[in-house]
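Aim 2 progress update. The chain analyzed this quarter is reproduced below.
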Amino acid sequence: MVNCNKHQNNGELKFPARCGLRFIWRRLYNAFVASTVAVALGACANTPQTYEMSEQELVTLRSDLGKIGVVMSQYPAKLKFATPARGGGGGAGKGFVAGFTLPILIGFVAPVPGGTLVGVIVAPFTGFYGAFTGAGRARSAEDVDRASDGIRSALARLQRQHVAELSLEGFVSIGEQRTPYVFEALPDIGPQERGHEPIYADLVPDDIDTVLEIRTERAGLWGMYDVDPPSVAFIDVRVNLIRVHDNKNLVEDDVTCMGEKRSYDEWGDDNGMLFYNEMLACIPRLQEKIIDDLFLVYRPAS
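Predicted structure tokens:
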């Protein structure tokens, strides 16, 4: 516990450094960020549909799958990056927004009558203080641009190496290693645009009974809105298991792969090598998770 009583130093009365306004501000902000991350990750922790089905339902479902074709969305994933502020001006802007919204959000969630109103009253002061500290914490525009260039280079390498095609073959390989089913990669057949629902009976070979549809929806770096936020590399995938003859969606699921938290500079270093490796590492983890959830797991007996 910090002793915030005044003490004498060279004839001057001072508070300990850890009792200053800046320290208190950072402690409040960090606590809010930690709670928000916990809520956000909890919201992303989707329970797979197969975990909620009875064992008999799963046995019935899986006994009639036949040969499974694997398709992947043909549209690009939405890219989302938590980027630092560029220079002092950008840091002041982000700091003001973060500082202004922080007391309002804390007041809204706090179990105190009138908390939101108090937050609104305090917000302009915390906003200007956030702008002041944000300007000092911001990275130079050159540093941010250098890291961004590295990440863009990594994205270009991933696209050139035809990661989507490699992913299809990976699903086939892992599926046939882990399950009794026969899988076949079907490139160029998946959804052509967001919201598009193909009629697979008109597209797949006659011996395909079920389609495992993989839609890569979002990817990039996830982090809080802050002047210089740490972030995690992520890929969000929508999974559908579709019966071919009537195009019925038998199972749907959302799966997310998230890596380790790093600074934006680290993600951009060495032409984005860490980001590149993290994206590649996510692919087999997603494949294993999807294959296990859809074709192997059973709901534990209660």
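Residues 1-25, 31-45 have pLDDT under 50 and may be disordered. DSSP finds seven helices and eight strands in the chain. These observations will guide the mutagenesis experiments scheduled for the next reporting period.
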